[in-house]
Amino acid sequence: MSLGSLTFRLGGDLEIRRLGFGAMRITGDGIWGEPSDREQAKAVLRRAAELGVNFIDTADSYGPDVSECLIGEALHPYSDDMVIATKGGLLRGGPNIWYSNGRPEHLRISLEKSLRQLKLERIDLYQLHRIDAQVPLEESLGTLSDLRNEGKIRHIGLSEVNNEQLAQAQKVVPIVSVQNRYSIGDHEWESMVDACEAQNIAFIPWFPLAAGKLTAPGGTLDQIAKKYEASVGQIALAWLLKRSPVILPIPGTSKVKHLEENMGAEKIALSDEDFQTLRELQA
Ligand SMILES: NC(=O)c1ccc[n+]([C@@H]2O[C@H](COP(=O)([O-])OP(=O)(O)OC[C@H]3O[C@@H](n4cnc5c(N)ncnc54)[C@H](OP(=O)(O)O)[C@@H]3O)[C@@H](O)[C@H]2O)c1
């Protein structure tokens, strides 16, 4: 069984390793404030880079600002092939409280702040974190398109969108990625995975480990993991890598040990039969 390609050309010009890192979990509880141990958070980021991760997902709202600042502190100056994907368009009212703001003036301010925090002159992938129901999509994306023309954004992506919204967005500006919730047993966005694959757009599944639930031993996943001498989390990530060549899993962790374990998923070549068994699991 072939492992398939472990890399993907994002937007046609950025060669990245498909198994990336989600930097939401390096903040405080509720994705709010500073982490309890900043040095440990930076150690996770540095270890990710050492292990060859060159696709890191973050957002200005993680902390807020904390995740982006830690990435800038830990990894700048970046290696030439490092791609930082950030997002704007969500605001925070407190721990676990999120609300959208897709107004042009807000997106401009957010983008400038992300550039400063990440110590970048251009964001390789800037994702509209949520479509704001109060603002026409054309206005939000029109602003991101302007920022792209100004050289501040290389590529534009979306988050939590359906097929109609993707098509609507593509009338405004080229879209290179969609980030929706997806993992073994979480089938809501199957048709979006297929649509992305058909167009060679990256599909970035958030909650690839179902927020940690898919790392807990038990059931079918556990039996299959034992067969491959792997952890259940590794099997969950290997399944995503096999599901489609456009899938870029971004497991999040605050711990070096978990990061190292997660990266081991790349070495697991699931059989077609095990893949199918896992595909039929219910969330
Ligand atoms: N676009 C959006 O709206 C959106 C929403 C949510 C997330 N995201 C992005 O998606 C990324 C991934 O999502 P996520 O981090 O929320 O969820 P996840 O990757 O599904 O799971 C992360 C959780 O699993 C635990 N974990 C990770 N590896 C583990 C391991 N090997 N063993 C045991 N536990 C492990 C982590 O705890 P420890 O810290 O203890 O390892 C953490 O609590 C985020 O980091 C963020 O970049 C985007």
Salient structural properties:
single chain; about 280 residues; alpha/beta; TIM Barrel; seven-stranded parallel sheet; two-stranded antiparallel ribbon; 10 helices; 11 strands; binds NADP nicotinamide-adenine-dinucleotide phosphate
Question: Would you spell out the secondary-structure blueprint of this structure?
Answer:
Layout: E1 7-10, E2 14-17, E3 21-22, H1 38-50, E4 55-57, H2 66-75, E5 83-88, E6 90-94, E7 97-100, H3 104-118, E8 123-128, H4 137-149, E9 153-159, H5 163-170, E10 177-179, H6 190-199, E11 202-203, H7 219-227, H8 232-243, H9 256-263, H10 272-279
Parallel strand pairs: 3-4, 4-5, 5-8, 8-9, 9-10, 10-11
Antiparallel strand pairs: 1-2, 6-7
Helix pairs in contact: 1-2, 7-8
Bound molecules: NADP nicotinamide-adenine-dinucleotide phosphate.
Mean pLDDT: 96
Structure annotation, total helices: 10
Q: What's the CATH architecture name? A: Alpha-Beta Barrel
First-residue to last-residue Cα separation: 27 Å
Contiguous uncertain segments of 5+ residues: none
Task: Indicate the CATH topology.
Answer: TIM Barrel
Task: Say how many strands there are.
Answer: 11
Cα gyration radius (Å):
18 Å
- What is the domain tally? 1
H-E order = EEEHEHEEEHEHEHEHEHHHH
What is the global morphology? globular
Q: Largest sheet, order of strands side by side?
A: 3-4-5-8-9-10-11
Structural class, by secondary structure, is: alpha/beta
| Largest sheet entry | 7 strands, parallel
Helix content: 25-40%
CATH-wise, what's the superfamily?
A: NADP-dependent oxidoreductase domain
Fraction of residues in β-strands: 15-25%
The first-level CATH class name: Alpha Beta
Q: What bound compounds does this protein have?
A: NADP nicotinamide-adenine-dinucleotide phosphate
